[in-house]
Amino acid sequence: MTSTSTFLEGTDISINRLTIRRWLERHVHVRRRPMMDVVLPCTLNQHAAGAVFMGNHPHPYETSTIEKTLAHRREIDSLIPEGSDFTPIMTLYLTDHISPDEVVRGFKEGVWRAAKLYMANQQGQGGTTGSQHGVRDLRGRYPVFAAMEKHQIPLLGHFEAVEEKVDEFDREIRSVNRDLKPLMKAFPGLPIVFEHITDGRAAEFVAEANHNIQATVTCHHLMHNRNVLFWEGLNPLKWAKPVFKKEPHRRKVRKYVTSGHKRFGAGTDSAPHDEVAKCRLCRCAAGIFTALSAVEFYAMVFDEDNALPHLEAFLSENFVGLYGMKPSEKKMTLVRQPRLLPLKVGDVWVEGGGTSLPWELLAA
Length: 364
Ligand code: NCD
Ligand code: ZN
Hints:
Blueprint: E1 13-14, E2 17-21, E3 23-28, H1 35-45, E4 48-53, H2 66-77, E5 87-93, H3 100-108, E6 114-117, H4 142-151, E7 155-157, H5 171-186, E8 192-194, H6 200-208, E9 213-217, H7 219-223, H8 227-230, H9 247-258, E10 264-266, H10 275-278, H11 294-304, H12 311-317, E11 331-335, E12 339-340, E13 344-345, E14 348-349, E15 356-357, E16 360-363
Parallel strand pairs: 3-4, 4-5, 5-6, 6-7, 7-8, 8-9, 9-10
Antiparallel strand pairs: 1-2, 2-11, 11-16, 12-15, 13-14
Helix pairs in contact: 3-4, 6-9
Zinc ion binds next to loops.
């Protein structure tokens, strides 16, 4: 950090140490066992007060019904240590088939706290891992959205146009115009989270919309632009959806985040794949595994922008109520000391593996 001049008065911050509320991981993939055995502890070790779990497992295991979601919840619970107060937040994997009544029942019974929208095209192709069984007919789901609006069930949207002819780098903004805007118009009271936002135009739209809409932002999209995909040879470890964008988009999203805009919150989209899936010659799996050191990555970004006073709200406060959470009363501490990351966790390559980060997260 170059200066302390922007520190807010009265905050418990010094240059080398930062104690803040435990955070909420608003978007994570932990897969199923046995991979879950090695990746879920990473999120727990990051002192998250809770996490929003995405259920895009290979068909037929996606969390598209109450029973499947409960089964996934049991898997997660079995790995949470006794006495932990970590809160798993389950999501419904929305399909063309589930009825509005079932969506509401799962919400009322506390099975899920939000519905995750993945879209597939008319050929049943999805734009990201495990999205083939997502929604093909968005208009056909309007009765579900009406019920969600009525019961204030948040819609967590992966907004990318999946059609083959759409330019890969414009998929997000195309979906904003084609899918999101009509949706917001039709359901002005529907709470929406725009997941892993990457396009500066989309971020501006979220920041200024007259609607209960927020966005999660990953650490990797704050750190990298699309050059990392190509630098020193095509790099499958940097292949994730949405694809990294041009530098001006990264900067614009990052500006909203580190300037403390309340509509943006941390959701890593940490998405582990084993080495075979990542290194396939064709159909390389999309996803970057950041769960091991996500808080340190975010801290590094805020620090670089001389914005550490805004880190706590982004990690631990902004729109956590949407998921039925309160900002945690428990604390965690970041210390400015090198943290060397391992190359791999189990069979999963680690984002930043082999490098040293400037911050390390400790318990309170
Ligand atoms: C995610 C995954 O692997 O499950 N992949 C990714 O590139 N982000 C799915 C998703 O969130 O798009
Ligand atoms: Zn995801």
